Prior knowledge:
GO terms for molecular function: serine-type carboxypeptidase activity; sinapoyltransferase activity. The protein is α/β, with parallel strands linked by helices.
Amino acid sequence: MERYIGVGEEEEVQLFYYFIKSERNPEQDPLLLWLSGGPGCSSISGLIYENGPLTVKLEVYNGTLPSLVSTSYSWTKVSSILYVDQPVGTGFSYSRTHIANKPSDSGEAKRITEFIHKWLGKHQEFLSNPFYVGGDSYCGMVVPALVQEISKGNYLCCKPPINLQGYVLGNPAAEVGNDYNHRIPYAHGMALISDELYESLKRICKGEYQTVDPRNTECLKLLEKYDKSIDRIYTGLILLSKCDKTSPDCYEYRYSLITHWANDESVQRALQINKESIGEWIRCYREIPYTHDIKNSIPYHMNNSIDGYPSLIFSGDHDFEIPFLGTQAWIRSLNYSIVDEWRPWMIGDQIAGYTKTYANKMTFATIKGGGHTPEYKPEESSIMFQRWIDGQPL
């Protein structure tokens, strides 16, 4: 089983991927491409923590290989999934030559489109399956452009079209200023800052908290006070504590287990990793060379809507990184009429979150108690995805 697909003129960029077939009916079920955010976070994050059929067993690391156990909430119950390490330098993806140009948002949209064409060329039995693109967090900048790129490519000659049917994004970035500016009203709504501080911030910073005029010293002082208030909050899920990552009680301890697993010699042999290609495997390579050339992905959402592609945009409502308030604001800015009013969506007799659907086939959903990615509420996320991909109301 090959693990890499070469893209670029000389196929110098070797993108590593995992492919997992649907457990239901792989011949007919959708094929989902799932990307992790960052940029620079390996798709193993998606596979092991968010929506795959395996996860790492949570136990104290004792020098032996951490074991993988199966999950009950995999999205592969209803769709096949391609997890891709991108951009180059992420996870096990590497370049065979020195790369002259840094990867970028718009460049990735083209590269991943090329990846999909090549992958489908090698696995033609999946050409007719409904194809979806998905991801979370920073992928909100890349996925809408990628959907547009695939859609445009389908009208050109010479390549079999990709059977694109829609896209799904969790807590997606959309426009840096918008996402960041909504953290302060979110912090206020969640009782992390006082009414007084919130009112002063609004009045003196005028709702703009990210790029503050350095002469507005009063606003900067208030922001310092705000930073002190939220300093110990774990931004991925505000219910968790910020703590020492090496402690087994810390939520992020699980990430160190997968790092031990992925760096193990026997694992890399089994995965057929090109040994020369990478040094140490890092779950999220934060310093990855990258050009952020899409500053605002909202116009891409608009174009994809005009082209008729359905989308599911969901938010864990306890995420502080990209709060649902910011996501709701840009969805409102698209100005589509509402076809299904705000209502709870249920699992059995329990409220799992809230949802509304717009005339552009965009469904927005919250996951009650959820965080920055599906990993914090995997069962609920999985049921939400299954309903949406099968065309049922949530």
